[in-house]
Amino acid sequence: MDSRTFNRSAGTVLALCIWALLAPTTIAFAQTPPAASNIDCQRASTQAELNACAYEDFLVTQAGMADELKRLQTGFSAEQRAGLRRVQRAWLSFRTEACAFESRNAGVSSSQPMLQWQCTARLTRERTAVLVRAVNCPEGDLTCIRPPASGAPSR
Question: What is the mean pLDDT of residues 34-38?
């Protein structure tokens, strides 16, 4: 197996792992609203529109986080990737529970999905910012989780 085939295979496995990590999030919410693509979210006025726009915002933030996870794992060993997957799974569980707790006061009202999606998007943006910092950590940062550059001494 040449390196291009391995990289493609590893990329496919990574994409499936990310999907497996993120899929339970969608299941955790009782109902996925319709896409907001035909809604002007700046002028949304009905609860259904507000729910759809909150969900759309979540999808955008989720895609951004998935991209950062891919970038972060570039050059990781299998052990490092497995460790990051464990951390990400724990974070996803935290996010799901935290947002369920945060939106609990809405009960079964029609605003509950909006509150939950807004919370999920907000926490996902925060997590993405952490991942971006990890991808772009400065030289010499001993807390950096990125692997050292080729030829650099390992820590």
Answer: 62
